[in-house]
Amino acid sequence: VLTETQRADYDRDGFLVLPGLVDPAACAALVDRAAEIAAEAPTDKSVFTTREQERVSDERFLASGPSITCFTEPDGVTLAKIGHALHDLDPVFAALSRRPELAEVLTDVGMRDPLLLQSMYLCKAARSGGEVGSHQDATFLWTDPVTVTGMWLALEDATVDNGCLWALPGGHRTVPLEKRFVRAGADDAGGTAFEVLRPDVQVPDEGWVPLEATAGTVVVLHGLLPHRSSPNTSERSRAAYSLHVVERSARYPADNWLQRPAHLPAHGFAEA
Ligand SMILES: O=C(O)CCC(=O)C(=O)O
């Protein structure tokens, strides 16, 4: 599905913006489905914040890898995120996640046998949706070698004022992996920590570009690319669906925060 130019752009920039890959009706269906999930969820939700690399690292966060868990903004009420196994546990998200065109894009950027590992519904409510601090996805989903690749689907139009993604073009080539987010103990009660790999890494402040995206646009993100998003200062909400895949052949460490239990392994696109 990608042209030679698009592949070259991805190799150079570490991201690719693909407008119109998903139809607007499917995007609207995911927004509706997320609202249903949130309405049915327990009221004592966890707070989600990535500000200054701070993460909710309680037991519930660690247990959320193979689940559908709702997280709120710091106000404790406004939905911020649903994660992290919508692609396996919810039929509406599962069907979207396995669309052949997504698999074809991943093949075209060089993936051989991707496993669908993590999914997140990420919403920024009008005027109150928070920022996501600069990060490299390999920090959170490290494999040896690094293979994590993100597919970020705009479910609503994303603009600078409602909190679109920003990226540092070429940063996947120039910024080494700074740190890993790991489990500090053997079970979900053990907490989490950042293991610093390169204390010398300085992510530049200059050169960032906004990745504005109309609903249905897929942004492909290399696992080492620094990216972030700003708070929603507008009157319009910004919803997105983010799917992270890793190469099946890469080593997946036991101390990565996200662990799938034996009865719920990560699957490839062709597997149920
Ligand atoms: O949707 C956002 O604001 C951030 C998403 C992100 O960083 C990711 O999916 O890796």
Q: What ligand molecules are bound, each kind once?
A: 2-oxoglutaric acid
**Number of discrete helical segments:** 8
> What composes the largest sheet?
9 strands, mixed
- Percent range for helical residues? 10-25%
Question: How many distinct beta strands?
Answer: 15
Overall mean confidence score, pLDDT: 93
List the helices and strands in order. Answer: HEHEHEEHHHEEHEEHEEEEEEE
What fraction strand? 25-35%
How does the overall form come out from the CA principal axes? globular
Class based on secondary structure composition and strand pairing: alpha+beta
The unreliable regions are: 51-55
Radius of gyration: 17 Å
Euclidean distance between termini CA atoms:
23 Å
Q: Could you characterize the architecture of this molecule?
A:
The chain is of the alpha+beta class. It has eight helices and 15 strands. The strands form three sheets. Strands 1, 2, 3, 4, 5, 7, 12, 14 and 15 form a nine-stranded mixed beta sheet that branches. The longest helix has 17 residues, at 24-40. Mean pLDDT is 93; it is low at 51-55. Bound molecules: 2-oxoglutaric acid.
Summarize the structure.
The chain is 22% helix and 27% strand. By secondary structure, the chain is α+β, with helices and mostly antiparallel strands.
List the helices and strands and how they pair.
Elements: H1 4-13, E1 15-18, H2 24-40, E2 46-47, H3 59-63, E3 68-72, E4 79-84, H4 86-89, H5 91-97, H6 100-108, E5 114-124, E6 132-135, H7 137-140, E7 149-154, E8 165-167, H8 171-174, E9 179-183, E10 192-196, E11 209-211, E12 218-222, E13 227-229, E14 238-247, E15 267-268
Parallel strand pairs: 2-3
Antiparallel strand pairs: 1-12, 3-4, 4-5, 5-14, 5-15, 6-13, 7-12, 7-14, 8-11, 8-13, 9-10
This protein binds 2-oxoglutaric acid.
The site of 2-oxoglutaric acid has 10 residues, from strand 7, strand 13 and strand 14.
